[in-house]
Amino acid sequence: MPRLGFSSALATQTPTLQVRVVARFPHDPNAFTQGLVIVDSELYEGTGGYGESVLRRVDLKTGRVLEQVELPDRWFGEGITDWQDELIQLTWRAGVGLRYDKATLAPRGRFSIRGEGWGLTHDGRHWIMSDGSAELRFLDPADGRELRRLRVMDGAKPVQRLNELEYVGGEVWANLWYEDRLVRIDPANGQVLGYIDLGGLWPDDQPRRHDQVLNGIAVDPQTGDLFVTGKRWPWLYHIEVIEGATD
């Protein structure tokens, strides 16, 4: 993987929204966060790393792990999403996606992935997957089969390194690997609608390791509350997008 610096610099004139922090909650500082989702007001997290990848149910306010299932050591966990009565988890380079019973986290089956798995969400009809490129893949939830791809463009420029995904109000929101901002994507045509600046979340007086990148977006569908975190971050943030506050 390339050595990239943290950045919230804007390379385009596309509008960028600001946020305010509503609350901050403890987060496992050892969790290499790859996926985050809220279902029925419960927080689920998928983590990565060979020999340390898990899918877990977490108490949102305390960060306490309530239940978890470990992946085999040979698999590197990636993005997660909910689907009906299941939770779905990608792996990075194993070519395997995993299905779990949402209530018990018991394994339900597998499906095949071509190439790398990164982020995952759904629009109510399809699973939507990223692979670290500028493309989103739309998958058939019945068997994980790829149906189509969508190239994400900011004007005429492809937006690379799409990572963790969340479907928010008819848009796909994505972390950009090694950047402190989210990108808002129109799932109909792949055009970037704007960015969300999260550059102020990490405290200036706290050291930050190179692997502690922003990654993890979850929206509570019952309340609309938005939560973000990062890989090995000690905090989970409840944030609010400030409409009309742009750079």
UniProtKB/TrEMBL annotation:
Record-linked Gene3D superfamilies: YVTN repeat-like/Quinoprotein amine dehydrogenase (2.130.10.10)
Protein name: Glutamine cyclotransferase
GO molecular function: glutaminyl-peptide cyclotransferase activity
Pfam families linked to this entry: Glu_cyclase_2
Stored InterPro entries: QCT, Quino_amine_DH_bsu, WD40/YVTN_repeat-like_dom_sf
Originating organism: Lamprobacter modestohalophilus
